[in-house]
Amino acid sequence: MTSRGLILGIESSCDETAASVVERGSRTLSSVVASQIATHARYGGVVPELASREHLRAIVPVVRAALAQAEITLGDLDAIAVTSGPGLAGALLVGITYAKALAFAQGLPLIAVNHLEGHIHAVLLHEREAEKQVLRLTTLAQDDKSVVGKGQELSLTALAQDDSFEVSRKEEPALALVVSGGHTHLYLCRPAHNAWTYRLVGRTLDDAAGEAYDKVAKLLGFGYPGGPWIDSLARFGNPLAVPFAFSQIKTKLHLAGKAPRTKAAHTAPIANLDPHFLFSFSGIKTAVLRYVELHEMRPEAQARAARLFAPQICHPEQSAAESKACPERAEGDLRLAPRPPQTKDEALALCPQQVLDLVASFQHAVVGDLMKKTFAAAESLGARRILITGGVAANRELRTRFTAEANRRGLRVAFPTPALSTDNAAMIAAAAWPRFLSGEFADEGLSADPSLALGR
Ligand code: KG4
Ligand code: ZN
């Protein structure tokens, strides 16, 4: 291997085509994400056939942009990592096929990464980058004579690089909540040599939390994905206006032998899991629907959807951002997604206060349920800290409330940056690093596994 330990990560499991170069699993040199939101927004969800087509269009420019941003060429890489599942079969295959071709052409090892493990590594990557930053700043502050300062900085950075996978045992096991559009899963994570082991300890029985956000947003006539819309709008509503309640999933008996009603990865039988750590988000979606019907809010929501998705609504600055990531799409395709409101006036121009109260109450209940079960699992399983990741981890109320409760309990809680919370390829390249160190490479037969599970 070259001294740099450079891994190109490729992610195409759902509606984001992403590529990133990460050095030694702990320093992001580039991270490029081409979103397909504009394509899927009008359908209120991801259309698998359209997703594959968009990945095909974006994959080459996105990988090129990631290499250019990292200021390297393919010849500088040490390995190529790609998401092999779970996700949409056709979408995954685009990334896998391209990664295989690149690896073969460059004579580089190929590393298959589980998307869910990638999400967990997004938190670890962010932590490692933050630690290195602190080390560097401390060293620079220690001595203002630049020659000595520089030398110290170099040696400490090298040390941090060598130790990048020496996880602190004082803080393990960690409990990871992966909360995204396809998953709401709890894993107990333990370090083992340079890698990690994962044990599934909880999961949703039906919809994922992100899926509930997306469905409620669609029902209320907002954009896709629904999470960022509800996140923005909920700030202006009363979270206690509608008393949504989650009932405790009581007994294992009625679950025995039942397959979960979810698109998520296959896992161990639900009956083996503690029912206190099981989630269910289809009920709250139905409760919102009943509320909307009872209060005759449908016509107003439908009118809003028609307004939002009228062809003339587009944002020039979004076009510029998209064209950076994916010039091919920006040139030929002007369908752009509307954006969530940022101020109360903008929110009220979009919907009445009653809708703001409804989304605030929905979010308050969802975050409350995620907290209740995650903290119960952390306590019962002796977790020393909590890692929260996946698209829903970008949510502001979720971050604030989890952090406050963790502080109250004297537990540490960590999140990725909001950009690393949603799908990206830096997390894939970071998760590949321990596999690279232990020589765990994929062969040319690697294929997509749409329901690939993580851990036991
Ligand atoms: O991790 P992700 O990008 O893709 C999957 O692996 O599924 O997660 C996407 C999900 C969507 O359901 C989206 O609505 C949700 O994450 N999401 C959010 C926020 N940003 C994205 N949910 C709540 N608040 C947000 N700010
Ligand atoms: Zn994801």
Strand content: 15-25%
- Strands in their spatial order, largest beta sheet: 9-8-7-6-10-11
Give the radius of gyration: 22 Å
* Pattern of helices and strands: EEEHHEHEHHEEEHHEHHHHHHEHEHH
Mean pLDDT: 86
Compute the separation of the termini in Å.
32 Å
H/I helix tally: 16
What is the share of helical residues?
Answer: 40-55%
What does the overall shape look like? globular
Bound molecules: 5'-O-[(R)-(carboxyoxy)(hydroxy)phosphoryl]adenosine, zinc ion
Question: How would you explain this protein's 3D organization?
Answer:
With 456 residues, the protein is of the alpha/beta class. Helix content is 47%, strand content 15%. It has 16 helices and 11 strands. The chain has helices at 37-40, 48-70, 89-106, 115-142, 146-162, 209-219, 226-234, 282-294, 298-308, 316-325, 327-332, 344-350, 353-381, 396-409, 418-421, 426-437; strands spanning 6-11, 16-23, 27-35, 79-85, 110-114, 174-179, 184-192, 195-204, 278-279, 385-389, 412-414. The strands form 2 sheets. A 6-stranded mixed sheet has the order 9-8-7-6-10-11, with helices on both faces. A hairpin with a 4-residue loop joins strand 1 and strand 2 (16-23). The protein starts with 5 loop residues before the first strand and ends in a 19-residue tail after the last helix. The model is unreliable at 143-165 and 312-335 (pLDDT under 50). Bound molecules: 5'-O-[(R)-(carboxyoxy)(hydroxy)phosphoryl]adenosine (KG4) and zinc ion.
